[in-house]
């Protein structure tokens, strides 16, 4: 692969060289319901690359929680109730005028890493932490009013879920 054919290397990872065995995987998605327009685009972006990597749609389950704070618990419950190879946790935190943003970011990030290490199941960090709505739209690839609608980070999360699930599967 040449440098020019790998545009994701700037804003995201180059996908893993092989997703062989992805059709065996069972993947979960837990998403928050705050900032729904952005969330929908991120969930769809994740589903798109899960499919491209070879995950079967019948092997994907999707659940929601109210906000990003609830994501670690939602992922933990999903992993305890279903036999899954990886879970993608999706949320969008937009900074407001109080300290909530900082506390929720910190706790949900730590919580998700803890769930992954405690359960030995890959948990993909699909939380945007942005300063403005504009930044959220760009990172979901839906800033259509601009020349460049941005990059949908959900695409990277779908590939990351498959790569990590295959690692854990071996
Ligand atoms: N949840 C999000 O997913 N994204 C946010 O940007 C967000 N901002 C919040 C701001 C405030 C002031 C509060 C009180 C909650 C916010 N939440 C947000 C919801 C939070 O993650 C959680 O669902 C609720 O606090 C209920 O536990």
UniProtKB/TrEMBL annotation:
Encoding gene (name): RIB4
Single GO BP term: riboflavin biosynthetic process
Keywords in alphabetical order: Riboflavin biosynthesis, Transferase
Biological role: Catalyzes the formation of 6,7-dimethyl-8-ribityllumazine by condensation of 5-amino-6-(D-ribitylamino)uracil with 3,4-dihydroxy-2-butanone 4-phosphate. This is the penultimate step in the biosynthesis of riboflavin.
HAMAP family per record: Lumazine_synth
Catalyses which reaction(s): (2S)-2-hydroxy-3-oxobutyl phosphate + 5-amino-6-(D-ribitylamino)uracil = 6,7-dimethyl-8-(1-D-ribityl)lumazine + phosphate + 2 H2O + H(+)
Pathway field: Cofactor biosynthesis; riboflavin biosynthesis; riboflavin from 2-hydroxy-3-oxobutyl phosphate and 5-amino-6-(D-ribitylamino)uracil: step 1/2
Record-stated family: Belongs to the DMRL synthase family.
GO molecular function, one term: 6,7-dimethyl-8-ribityllumazine synthase activity
NCBIfam families, sorted: lumazine-synth
Enzyme Commission number, as recorded: 2.5.1.78
Keyword Transferase tagged: yes
SUPFAM superfamilies to which the protein is assigned, alphabetical: Lumazine synthase
Keyword Transferase in annotation: yes
Cellular-component GO terms for this entry: mitochondrial intermembrane space; riboflavin synthase complex
PANTHER family to which the protein is assigned, alphabetical: 6,7-DIMETHYL-8-RIBITYLLUMAZINE SYNTHASE, 6,7-DIMETHYL-8-RIBITYLLUMAZINE SYNTHASE DMRL SYNTHASE LUMAZINE SYNTHASE
Protein name (record): 6,7-dimethyl-8-ribityllumazine synthase
């Amino acid at each position: 692969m040449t440098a020019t054919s790998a545009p994701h290397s700037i804003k995201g990872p180059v996908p893993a060289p092989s997703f062989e065995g992805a059709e065996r995987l069972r993947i979960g998605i837990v998403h928050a319901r705050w900032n729904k327009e952005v969330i929908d685009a991120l969930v769809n972006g994740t589903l798109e690359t899960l499919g491209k990597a070879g995950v079967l749609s019948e092997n994907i389950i999707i659940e929601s929680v109210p906000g990003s704070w609830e994501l670690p618990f939602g992922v933990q419950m999903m992993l305890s109730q279903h036999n899954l190879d990886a879970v993608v946790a999706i949320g969008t935190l937009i900074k407001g005028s109080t300290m909530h943003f900082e506390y929720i970011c910190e706790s949900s990030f730590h919580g998700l890493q803890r769930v992954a290490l405690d359960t030995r199941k890959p948990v993909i960090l699909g939380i945007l932490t942005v300063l403005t709505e504009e930044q959220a739209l760009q990172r979901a690839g839906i800033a259509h009013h601009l020349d460049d609608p941005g990059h949908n980070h959900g695409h990277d999360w779908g590939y990351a879920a498959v790569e990590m699930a295959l690692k854990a599967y071996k």
